[in-house]
Amino acid sequence: MTAAIDVHGLTKRFGGGTVVDQASLRVDAGRICGFLGPNGSGKTTTLRMICGLLIPDAGGGTVLGLDLGHDRQAIKRQIGYMTQKFGLFGDLSIRENLDFVARVYSLDRRRARVDAALEQLGLATRADQLAGKLSGGWKQRLALAACILHEPRILLLDEPTAGVDPQARREFWDQIHDLAKQDMTVLVSTHYMDEAERCHEIAYIAYGRMLARGTTEEVIAASGLYALTGEGPGADRLAREIEGLPGVSLAAPFGTRLHVCGPDPDALRRAVAPWDGRVHWKASTPTLEDVFIDLMQNATDNSVVVN
Ligand code: ADP
After folding, report:
1. CB distance 94 to 129 below 8 Å
2. Is the CB–ligand 1 distance for residue 18 below 6 Å?
3. How do residues 61-75 score in pLDDT, each as one tens digit?
4. Which of 89, 185, 255, 260 is 20 to 30 A removed from 76 (C-alpha atoms)?
5. How far is CA 262 from the centre of its chain?
6. How many Å lie between the centroid of ligand 1 and the Cα of residue 45?
7. Is the pTM of this model over 0.90?
8. 135: which residues sit within 8 A by CB, 6+ positions away?
9. Is 127 exposed, middle or buried (0-12, 13-18, 19+ CB in 10 A)?
10. Which atom from ligand 1 is nearest to the alpha carbon of 189?
11. Cβ distance 243 to 250 under 8 Å?
12. Structural domains in the chain?
């Protein structure tokens, strides 16, 4: 596998605080990597360093074999970056918006590029609709179309589906997978666990530090967490009582059942034993959300450290 993104030690400081702290990330060509982490953990800053918009204070690496330090202009040309706030002209049609973007970037073969992007993202039949009248999901699609006009080899998508309904999110992800099949490499930040599970692999960052990396299954296995599901009358109401007991890192109602997890199976079992009379406990698999909450709880906030 060739690495499309291979960066290491990326560090960025703002106003004396370290917001990205020696982050390393490798994403192979044609893979979809989900980038997760709480708000303010440094995802956007990392994405902006990878696409050459921000210069790291330390660290480096390559993007498509180009050096992050010396080839930033060449890197930018090969990347499609979709920010959280993309600007569309509501009173222009879908086609006109794409044509406008193509003009701004002085792209050649404008008509052919716009047609190809419309086709690729299933927008051809709506090409003449006003962008301002589109639903959130279709607007995202248009924004994605605008990102691929210059035929990039990497897409960096910053929370592309925030606020979009589940059906539109699903369709958006189908589009991302179609692009990956054509060898596009995608690094996409998201807060949605179902989206994380649609990625080939994930990276989790908190307080500017990369804390987990791998496939969903690998990240769950590496967490060393164990989980139990409790079923019985009122099991779901025990969360507050059980959470925080020794050996329990998290307790949450899943419908009428209770989901608990912790780092030691025996300690976890002992913690819930007092409710054995009314609740039946069964071993279950920790969720990605369990793992992220646990990582967060154990991470230290270095964002106020002055370097
Ligand atoms: P995320 O995308 O994970 O929400 P960001 O990368 O946007 O996180 O932000 C990480 C931290 O860096 C936040 O505390 C944010 O306020 C700070 N930050 C981001 N950009 C700047 C900037 N240009 N100047 C100062 N602080 C910034």
Report:
1. yes
2. no
3. 999 999 999 999 999
4. 89
5. 25
6. 6
7. yes
8. 165, 168
9. middle
10. 2
11. yes
12. 3-219 (3.40.50.300), 226-285 (3.30.70.100)
